[in-house]
């Protein structure tokens, strides 16, 4: 919704140029045409100042009706003009002024009220391009940065909400709307404070869904396929869907599987079991982070040490290989020993007389 003064050809939309007024207009932008509704600034000012107009609210009402009558009369036969009347934000409305004008819309046969959707579905006028207002006060850029960050957090959370996200986050949507009110233009310091408080509130909201780290920061795996058990907490009053991202520094000895999307009940703690495969014993540095389904972070990132005393496939292969090699070396030494004993016995028997006893060396040295 735009004011006619903010468009290069806004006069065409309010009936000051052309044959009829058309509240529905097409605005040219750098990214293509934009559908908009254009408000009549003159009629808006009449409604907004009716209570303090010269001659009283009744005179303001008469001017309001006269302007509408002229706009309706200039439309070609068989057509009608559509006019959007938007009072200023600081309107001081009363029954004799703005109230009477609203009632007039349904009281006269040549006028009829219409919804915003009906105005948007009506004929469209070419309203030109956007025009920057001259010497207009704007919101502080630093505050707008905080508001943008808060809105980004809100959108990320909306992607995780199970059910109607707009209803669940309606209070925060209202807070974002209040933070961007034009009433802050005259007080940039207060606007920055409000925007910072809004961002902090959304960051705290995002932190209510998080992982809980082990007390001592370590976790032990008792077997090669023991799961990694992690606890998550959802302090929000709504159910959310999350994704658990777990990774290890160096994946040679430890593989961690993806468990997909998980639904967390409102206000509860949930235990998640992550399948793992250990290929060697030892310690592994592991980090874990909860995210929304779209990958936006939730809560704090945790780091923990995972220790495993189980023998993986590689460890078992090395152990059995070493045992086999040791057995072969022992067998080789045994065979050499037997062969040497047999050769020594034959040599000694050959040098002795027939029937003589062959002396045997003592088992131990006499010294």
Poorly predicted segments: none
Structural class: alpha+beta
According to DSSP, the number of beta strands is: 14
Rg from Cα:
42 Å
Describe it.
There is one protein chain. This protein has helices at residues 10-13, 41-48, 57-73, 95-107, 116-120, 141-158, 165-168, 170-179, 188-206, 313-350; strands at 2-3, 24-29, 32-39, 125-129, 209-212, 218-221, 228-234, 240-248, 254-256, 261-264, 268-274, 276-278, 282-291, 297-308. The protein is of the alpha+beta class. The strands form four sheets. A five-stranded mixed beta sheet has the order 6-14-13-8-10, with no helix packed on it. The chain starts with a strand and ends in a 17-residue tail after the last helix. The relative contact order is 0.09. The mean pLDDT is 82.
SSE diagram, text form:
Blueprint: E1 2-3, H1 10-13, E2 24-29, E3 32-39, H2 41-48, H3 57-73, H4 95-107, H5 116-120, E4 125-129, H6 141-158, H7 165-168, H8 170-179, H9 188-206, E5 209-212, E6 218-221, E7 228-234, E8 240-248, E9 254-256, E10 261-264, E11 268-274, E12 276-278, E13 282-291, E14 297-308, H10 313-350
Parallel strand pairs: 1-3, 2-4, 6-14
Antiparallel strand pairs: 2-3, 5-7, 7-11, 8-10, 8-13, 9-12, 13-14
